[in-house]
Amino acid sequence: MPPNLISKLLQKCTSATIDEQENLQKTRQMVEHQIPLEIIKQPVHNSELKVFMKSSSYSNDELTKLFDLLTKKNSLSFSKIPGRNLFMAAVQDDATAYTGYENVWVRDNIHIAHAHYVQGDVETTALNVKEIGSFWLKYDNRWIDCIKVLNRYTDPHLAEDVMRRPHIRFNGTELTENTQHWSHAQNDAIGYWLWLSSKLCREGHLDYDILSKVAVFIALYFKKIDFCNDKDNGHWEEARKVEASSVGAATAGLRELELLLNENEKFQEIFEKNFNNFCKEHNLHEDFKVGKELVSNLKEEGLKKMNSILPFESRDAGAEREADGALLFLIYPLQIITGEMAQIVVDNVVRDLLGEHGIRRYKGDSYWMADYKAVFSEENRTGNFSEDIGQRNKHLKFGQEAQWCMFDAIVSCHYSLKLQDLQKRGASEAELLACKDSQINYFNRALGQITGEDCSFGPWHCPESYYIENGRVGKYVVNDITPLLWSQANLISAFLLIKKIL
């Protein structure tokens, strides 16, 4: 929609009656969903950073200077947990220790490890996935009990007891499980680990030992829980439902494992040996014959299920959801959805979730909604609401959801991938220019979210999200999870993909 038409619409709103204004406002909201993103401007919070930003395109030298600046300011640094090759979710101080973000989340760590991978630091990436695998092998009883006993029909209690599943959030310092009740039914997190580990092994950066053992657990576990129809807690660790983002992440992991098995005879030999020994030890041979065949079948089932849900996140009755930021990760880094479907997912996210300060996770998200710190005590702010999300949702004022800082960078990555494809196909200059404009626009939005001097946590941080504080609608500040390492990781990916296709 051209800017002059928007102006006319706004002018008409000012001279209309109250009833007409309400109707026109609704029309304006509908129109804005069709406005090209370049018309929707986001504030740049860091004035010093703004000097280095370009409105349309960057040269390689300009990107290098920008990256070096953020590196110098520690905006893109990742502090490991002392003595480990693991990362806490967010940097903590005494005031924010209550959040629990000093723990290790598998999903966050894989995104952070992947950011090291794209920078060429495959050693850190490999050490990270090995440490997570070591944790899962330390508590192999979680996998074994689920594989041997878990059956949603004959043992529904075990099927619903998320604490008896493999843990995806744990104490990284001690490499031990936490006793706090948590929503560990997160098939996406397991899929992420399998995806990156198999990718590293395919490229010769990871030895076979840990992956060949954990991959057997994962394949049998996904089969036993029927991952395509398993209602898990997903990326946002909330109410359980069948989600495309979880099915897709698990399928991406299975696809990468299948490629590894097909390409590497030595790994296949070790994997099948471990698979057969496990099945023999636990009397599973009647159900499972060949490990490679199981992996392939699971991948095909996952693709079919994911495609039946897309472009929605969930089609569960009573929990249907179309746009969800988690779907973006199926585009990048997983690249399990591409082409037209990837564009539809991006368009839906922009249409429904784009905000001035970031992108909402989904409509009706009450996590860090307006006045969150006033509504919830420190003890409850980052607690587990997965079994009673209504207790949190009842405080939400629709349209006042937090706006997150991890998504714009991924949308930029989408347009970088699309630009590569258009260039290969010999697309027109108009198509290439439009795609590049979107690539840079979302990249700039991600840069604009970096904190400035007015931030209570200080400048040069990549926050988790911006939320409305003290009832001042329109006054957005960063939440207490600042900086968030996942946001930093995504920004690095956006940087390097732009540089790759210059």
From TrEMBL:
InterPro entries referenced in this protein's UniProt entry, alphabetically: 6-hairpin_glycosidase_sf, 6hp_glycosidase-like_sf
GO molecular function: catalytic activity
GO biological process, alphabetically ordered: carbohydrate metabolic process
Superkingdom in the source lineage: Eukaryota
Annotated protein name in UniProt: Uncharacterized protein
Source organism per UniProt: Clydaea vesicula
